[in-house]
């Protein structure tokens, strides 16, 4: 993207550190990044975007993601309104005119969120446990009591495999993915206790 000096960055960068260095060197009009970038392939791209916004509050940022990560979207929205912010799912990028329009809107200072991300955020706002089935709530309640999957299976008169499926579904519905940010089972219980 052209920088304030009118020059164009010659090629995309390969990792989050290079993104930060290129943005400092070229002073771009907008930064477009993937949430997951090397070196860690976790949320390095998002953290780079946040660091760049901390350095320059008026820098528009558009973040792309393969999956809906509600915590990432919330973090982006918390960056403030001094400049445009965008969060799009990568499958929307294939619609070139829609993507180009999103880039222009974010560069102009607007907030652009993928419609599915907005739906997820609204659903979460109405209570993260609302999307769980009654059986999943029951399993989560027993998890909160410190029961193992085997103990839950015995209490509910189901197989341990069935409990494993319920736990997996609970973690997915609560958007608790494997990302090294904490033990997902504990985070699920904390979500239950806060509700």
Name the descriptors.
195 residues; alpha/beta; Rossmann fold; Arc Repressor Mutant, subunit A; 2 domains; 10 helices; 4 strands; 52% helix; 9% strand; disordered N terminus
Overview of this structure, please?
This protein starts with 15 loop residues before the first helix and ends with a helix. The protein is built from ten helices and four strands. The chain is an alpha/beta fold and 195 residues long.
Short description:
This is Two component transcriptional regulator, LuxR family. The chain has 195 residues and is of the alpha/beta class.
Secondary-structure blueprint:
Elements: H1 16-26, E1 31-34, H2 44-55, E2 61-65, H3 70-77, E3 85-89, H4 90-93, H5 96-107, E4 111-113, H6 115-125, H7 134-144, H8 149-156, H9 160-173, H10 184-194
Parallel strand pairs: 1-2, 2-3, 3-4
Helix pairs in contact: 1-2, 7-9, 7-10, 8-9
Shape descriptor: elongated
The average pLDDT value, as a whole number, equals 81
Q: What is the percentage of strand-forming residues?
A: 5-15%
Query: Order of SSEs, N→C?
Result: HEHEHEHHEHHHHH
CATH architecture label name of the largest domain: 3-Layer(aba) Sandwich
Biggest β-sheet description:
4 strands, parallel
CATH H level, superfamily name of the largest domain? Response regulator
The top-level CATH class of the largest domain is Alpha Beta
User: What distance lies between the first and last C-alpha atoms, to the nearest angstrom?
Assistant: 44 Å
Number of helices: 10
Stated plainly, the CATH topology of the largest domain is called Rossmann fold
């Amino acid at each position: 993207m052209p920088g304030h000096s009118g020059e164009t960055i010659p090629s995309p960068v390969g990792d989050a550190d290079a993104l930060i260095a290129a943005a400092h060197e070229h002073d771009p009009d907008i930064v477009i990044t993937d949430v997951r970038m090397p070196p860690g392939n976790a949320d390095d791209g998002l953290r780079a975007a946040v660091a760049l916004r901390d350095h320059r509050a008026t820098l528009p940022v558009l973040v792309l993601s393969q999956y809906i990560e509600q915590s990432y979207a919330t973090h982006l929205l918390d960056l403030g309104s001094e400049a445009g912010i965008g969060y799009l799912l990568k499958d929307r990028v294939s619609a070139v005119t829609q993507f180009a329009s999103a880039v222009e809107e974010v560069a102009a200072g607007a907030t652009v969120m993928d419609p599915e991300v907005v739906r997820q955020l609204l659903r979460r706002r109405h209570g993260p446990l609302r999307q769980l089935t009654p059986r999943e709530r029951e399993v989560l309640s027993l998890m909160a009591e410190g029961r193992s999957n085997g103990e839950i299976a015995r209490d509910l008169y189901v197989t341990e495999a069935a409990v494993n499926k319920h736990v997996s579904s609970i973690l997915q519905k609560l958007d608790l993915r494997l990302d090294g940010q904490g033990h997902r089972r504990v985070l699920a219980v904390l979500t239950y206790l806060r509700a």
